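hiii, so i know i said id send this last week but things got crazy w the move. better late than never?? heres the sequnce for the chain we talked about at the cafe, plus the structure i predicted for it. fair warning i was half asleep when i ran it
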Amino acid sequence: MFENQDVGEEEDESRDGVSDLHSLAMATLSSRGRRTSVSAESLQPTASQDFVKTVVPKSDEQRERIRVAIGNNFLFKNLDEEQYLDVVNAMVEKRVAQTVKIIEQGGVGDYFYIVESGTLDCLINDSKVTEYAAGGSFGELALMYNAPRAATIVATSECVLWALDRVAFRMILMENTARKRRMYDRFLSEVPILKSLEPSERHKIADALEPILFEDGDVVIKENDVGENFYLIEQGNAIFYKTAADGTQQEVNRSSNGDYFGELALLNDKPRAATVVANGKLKCVTLGKKAFTRLLGPVMDILERNSENYHAVLKQANQ
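okay and structure toks below
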C-alpha cells in the first residue's frame, strides 16, 4: 500500500565532501595568524533594514539557466520562494576564459559564484585540492566569515558563472540560515532524547538538518522498516498508521508544524513502529543516525548525562 521514501546514506556521504573541503579551507585561514582570524561576529548578517534588494534584468532563458544551475546546490535547499527569487534577481552573469583566476587566495571576498558550465580548479597554497563543474559553487567562506579568500580558483576551460555580491549573499542566505537555526533549535529543545544537549550541540544539529519535501500521500517512513533518520515537521501535516490484526491500516495519530517522529532511530535499530504519510504537502527536516554520531558521538552517551531522562527514553525504546 505504501512506498517508503526514507532518506539514505548517499546524502550523508555528499555532505561529508562539502564538510571536508570547508574544514580544509578553514584550517588554512586559521594557520595564517591573527590578521586573518575568523570572528563569530562576522557570521551575523547585515541589518535587514539597510538592505536594498538588487534586481539585475534577465531574460526568461537566463532565469531558467540559473534555476538549473542552482537546482541541486546545498546552499539553496532551505530557501523559500521569495528568497529564491531574490537570489535569481541579484545574480550577475560572468563569462570567463580558460586560465583566468576568478578569485585568488588571500584576496578580498566580493562575490559568491555558482558554475553554469565549464570546469575550474581549486588551489590552496598552489596545490590542487578539488575541482568544480556545472552546479558547483565557491567563494562563500570569505563572505560568511569576513575573511580573506581561502583558496585560488582558476578556470580550466571557458566558463559561464553566476555571481552573487557580498551584501546580497549575506542577507539572503545567511539571514535565512540564522532564522532556520533559531526555529530548529526551538524544535530540538522539545525532543526528549535530545534534552541533554548543550546549546552549542543543538546548534550543530540544527545546522546539519536536511530539508525534504513530500507530496500528498507520500510515505515518509514505513511500519516495520529499519529506521535510520529522525524527522521534524517544519510545515504541513502527517498521519500515522498502524497495521491492524485484519491487515488494514488504522489511523493512530496526527502531527503538524513543530512535531517530530522517528527519533528512536538515533538510539537503536528497532523497526519503525508506524507508517507516516504526508497529509497534503509536507516539509520536513531530517537527520540520520550516522550524521548525528559523527557530529556529537553516540546518543547513549548524551542520554546518560541526565539519568532521569535516560531511563525514560530507554523504557520507551524497549516498549
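btw The chain has two domains: 48-173, 189-317. thought thatd interest u
miss u guys!!
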